[in-house]
Structure to design on (342 residues):
């Protein structure tokens, strides 16, 4: 049984109610083109999707993004910084906190309509205060429509990458969509997901039959895998990257814009957040070693917040309530180091 609680306005109604101001539309469009140029290889800049595991409170997220915007001025000739503002992200087991979209106050019950308005305001203010449009995870494909005019990068998680609806909706997005390898780590499944997202599709979406042209900016994200015993197995190493490089090459051009983004946390680090620094350093060294490796690795995902680690409840300002993150001081040093070595 489904108990109807609150009628949610359509995405069109919400976008009309809370539009992106015209002066920010230009910034967002320029940012979109910059990220697309990285994925397509038209630019040699490295892209960093960096920020908290889950955006649970607007105030610390905006403080983080303001700092990132200032840092961007120092590194923009080498890097494209994309704030990670993940507003749909729940706890791993899907019980308890379910993300800002559903719970704008993590200590209170679900209020989805308030959540939609809260995350739109958050993304708009983030662009306004930093000049940086953000990334968000497409955890629920139908929710994407409520943010489609605000985002520059979209992530599809490991548990979603084999889901047909995620693949279909990705095919209609005209922005970089990073599709993570499935939990089991299968490279063929990952490349099949990218292929589906890059292909034209017809399907039902928001009460319409829709047709898409395919998204040539869909690409692979390596986040590590989990074996049958629950052990984390890294896959950021040279061998896996080159296996995907060969998979792109063997597609005979069916897979466009060969690109990999390395997720430095999750199963690559075993959620030991400080290991992200070592992982990034190893990948940077491999980019120096092999020109093909350098050509296909377009950037990193890094989980980071104002304070390092995590906490079970929202007590410390700017500390994750989901997965543990790097603190700001280490993040700033890491970004400057990447810029120097890129």
């Amino acid at each position: 049984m489904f108990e109807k609680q609150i009628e949610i306005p359509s995405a069109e109604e919400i976008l009309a109610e809370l539009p992106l101001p015209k002066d920010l539309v230009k910034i967002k469009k320029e940012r979109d083109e910059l990220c697309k140029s990285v994925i397509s290889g038209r630019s040699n800049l490295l892209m960093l999707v960096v920020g908290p595991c889950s955006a649970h409170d607007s105030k610390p997220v905006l403080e983080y993004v303001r700092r990132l915007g200032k840092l961007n001025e120092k590194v923009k000739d080498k890097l494209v910084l994309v704030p990670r503002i993940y507003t749909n992200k729940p706890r791993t087991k899907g019980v308890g906190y379910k993300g800002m979209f559903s719970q704008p106050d993590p200590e209170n019950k679900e209020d989805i309509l308030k959540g939609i308005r809260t995350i739109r305001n958050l993304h708009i203010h983030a662009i306004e205060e930093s000049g940086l449009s953000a990334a968000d995870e497409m955890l629920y494909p139908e929710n994407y429509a409520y943010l489609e005019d605000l985002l520059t990068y979209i992530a599809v998680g490991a548990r979603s990458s084999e889901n047909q609806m995620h693949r279909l909706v990705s095919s209609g997005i005209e922005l970089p969509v990073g599709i993570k390898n499935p939990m089991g780590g299968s490279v063929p499944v990952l490349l099949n997901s990218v292929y589906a997202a890059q292909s034209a599709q017809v399907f039902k979406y928001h009460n319409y039959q829709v047709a898409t042209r395919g998204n040539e900016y869909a690409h692979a994200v390596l986040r590590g895998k989990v074996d049958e015993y629950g052990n984390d197995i890294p896959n950021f190493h040279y061998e896996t990257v080159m296996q995907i490089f060969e998979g792109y090459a063997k597609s005979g051009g069916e897979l466009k814009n060969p690109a990999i983004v390395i997720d430095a946390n999750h199963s690559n680090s075993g959620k030991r957040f400080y290991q992200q620094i070592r992982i990034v350093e190893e990948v940077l060294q491999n980019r120096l070693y092999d020109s093909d490796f350098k050509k296909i690795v377009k950037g990193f995902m890094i989980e980071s917040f104002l304070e390092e680690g995590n906490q079970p409840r929202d007590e410390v300002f700017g500390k994750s309530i989901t997965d543990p993150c790097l603190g700001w001081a280490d993040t700033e040093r890491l970004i400057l180091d990447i810029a120097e070595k890129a």
